[in-house]
Design goal:
The protein is an alpha+beta fold. The chain is built from four helices and four strands; from the N terminus they run E-H-E-E-E-H-H-H. The chain has a two-stranded antiparallel sheet with strand order 1-4. Strands 2-3 form a two-stranded antiparallel ribbon. The mean pLDDT is 95.
């Protein structure tokens, strides 16, 4: 088992999760973060830290499609371990549906 970040994170990018990760397995895109499933040690400390519940175990229904996306972009985006706060319009997009289709960006974020 591993944990994955889902589309709920898109356009929000709360970074509470990255600070608690003991193995620094989060990678930052322009408008979301992902977890490297090969580096994740399945400790689960990140899941309750996410204020919008964007992190799920890969065994949860619907999470399986996010494993490959997390793997792919964790290999392309820079590592992030510092919480710089959410994106400016995070609250506006917090509960918006279909964010992947509307907003997903393959561009990398700042990283540390």
């Amino acid at each position: 088992m591993t944990f994955v970040v889902t589309e709920v994170c898109i356009k929000c990018k709360y970074l509470d999760c990255v600070e608690v990760c003991p193995v620094d397995c989060f990678y930052e895109g322009e408008n979301m973060v992902v977890i490297n499933p090969d580096e994740c040690i399945d400790c689960g400390v990140c899941e309750p830290e996410c204020p919008i519940e964007a992190i799920l175990p890969d065994t949860d229904e619907g999470a399986e499609k996010w494993v490959e996306l997390n793997r792919r972009y964790s290999e392309q985006w820079p590592n992030v371990t510092v919480n710089r706060g959410p994106l400016p319009e995070a609250e506006k997009h917090r509960e918006e549906p279909d964010k992947f289709k509307k907003y997903f960006s393959p561009e990398p974020g700042e990283g540390d």
